[in-house]
Amino acid sequence: MKIAKTLGQFILEKQADFPYAKGELSRLLRDIGIAAKIVNREVNKAGLADILGEAGTTNIQGEGQKKLDVYANEQFISALKHGGECCIVASEENDEFIPIESEVSKDAKYIVAMDPLDGSSNIDVNVAVGTIFSIYHRTSTHGKATMDDVLQRGTEQVAAGYVIYDSSTMLVYTTGKGVNGFTLDPSIGEFCLSHPDMKIPKDGLIYSINEGYYSHFPDGVKKYIKYCQVEDAKTSRPYTSRYIGSMVADVHRNLIKGGIFIYPVTASAPSGKLRLVYECNPMAFIIEQAGGKATNGYERILELEVNELHQRSAIFIGSENMVHKAEEMMSFFSPQLLKRSFEGVVELQ
Question: Residue 154 and residue 124: Cα distance in Å, rounded?
Answer without folding.
Answer: 32
